[in-house]
Amino acid sequence: MRNAGPAICGSAVRLTISYSSTKGKNGNGTEAVPPQKMNRTANDRLPYSFSVLSAGMSYPKKDHLLERYFEYLEIERNASPRTVIAYKHALNQFKLFAGPRSSWRSCTAPQFRAFLLDCMKQGMARSYVRLRFAALRSFYKYLVERAELTENPLAAVHLPKTEKKLPIVLSVDQVDELLTAPKTIQRENQAPAWASARDAAIMELFYSSGLRLSELVALNVADIDPFSETVRVIGKGRKERVVPVGEIALQAIQRYRHEAQIQSGPLFISKLRKRISSRSVWLLLKKYLCQTSIQLRASPHKLRHSFATHLLDNGADLRSVQTLLGHANLSTTQIYTHVTVERLKKAYDAAHPRA
Fold first, then answer.
1. Is 88 a catalytic site residue?
2. 278 and 189, same structural domain?
3. I need a surface site. Which of 40, 43, 63, 261 has the fewest CB within 10 A?
4. What are the tens digits of pLDDT across the range 234-275?
């Protein structure tokens, strides 16, 4: 005899089949089910598209509008994989919020306002809320242009303004202390002999070229040109740019490649000789930060902030810094001018007798 009943796990409903075994044979004359097979679930035998969502307790159908939109993002807009993943997550979150009875064409402005309120109640950062609605607005713009939607309901939804926080930057002395840390700290037992040389090269390149974390871990050996002293970077939107690399960073990279015997493929590798992950870079920076006197919560991106701010402090023009950072809009780069002005004000207050 077997009984089937729903067992809810997370957000999905799984149909668990349990068997009552008897000696030798079941009541219907068939062989008893072995104990190791008694806990199998119905979902284990179904295709992925047949997973059951708790909302409405119904099988979801394929969303052809979303499929075509993501194809449009990847092929026509040449969006980066990270953008596609972020937009997929945002759109799926709204689908779960709206429920199974709503369709993309039937959604109204009040529904999006309710979703906005729900996001704010959850304590999400305003930047994250705006990212979610950027995905929704992009999708509905696509529906109006390509899927004959007559009206965009998001046009009547106003988002909260972004918080204007000045980026935290390290001083030149703090950067020097952090970048020399790999040379002074004893190597861990499990780490390869070239680990400290790799860590030094990573942090030197971060500060020398102002790369994003995702850009740095994606670098290959062929992207570094020691003759022109540049690095070729694929940034957001798969846009390519060429950034100068300082002499100290180039020397650190050459030293690391020599010790680790890196000739081709990924530039920065793990102890398993595979491409290093973003998380590993985060952890190594955190490890070295703990060995310094720096009290700030530094991150790989703070080295990028420091790179931009120190350039402006020393007279670089804003357009050049924008190009080096790979910013699409000059307004994004202008935040660093505010940091520079704040530093000038502090220096003025500290030095001027009538400040």
1. no
2. yes
3. 261
4. 888 778 889 899 999 999 999 999 999 999 999 999 989 999
Q: Are residues 19 and 140 in the same domain?
A: no
Q: Is residue 80 part of a domain?
A: yes
Same domain, 114 and 237: no
Catalytic residue list contains 304: yes
Q: What does the pLDDT read at residue 355?
A: 55
In a domain, 164, yes or no: no
Q: State the residue range of the domain holding 27.
A: 2-57
Active-site option among 132, 304, 305, 310: 304
* Region 111-139 average pLDDT: 93
Written as six digits, the tokens of 16 are 């668990």
Asked whether the beta carbons of 268 and 201 are under 8 A apart, the reply is yes
Does one domain contain both 322 and 196? yes
Residue 33 gets which letter from DSSP? P
67: nearest Cα among 47, 87, 41: 87
130 belongs to the catalytic site: no
Within 8 A by CB and 6+ apart from 24, the residues are 32
Query: Which among 82, 89, 301, 345 is annotated as catalytic?
Result: 301
At 333, is the secondary structure helix, strand, or coil? helix
Q: Is the pLDDT of residue 21 over 70?
A: no
Selection from 125, 189, 211 nearest residue 163 by Cα: 125
* Pairwise CA distance, residues 336 & 346, whole Å: 16
Strand order in the sheet with 224-225: 224-225, 230-234, 240-244
Q: Does the residue 282 lie in any domain? A: yes
CA–centroid distance for 21 within its chain: 50
Q: Which residue has the tokens 């990028």?
A: 304
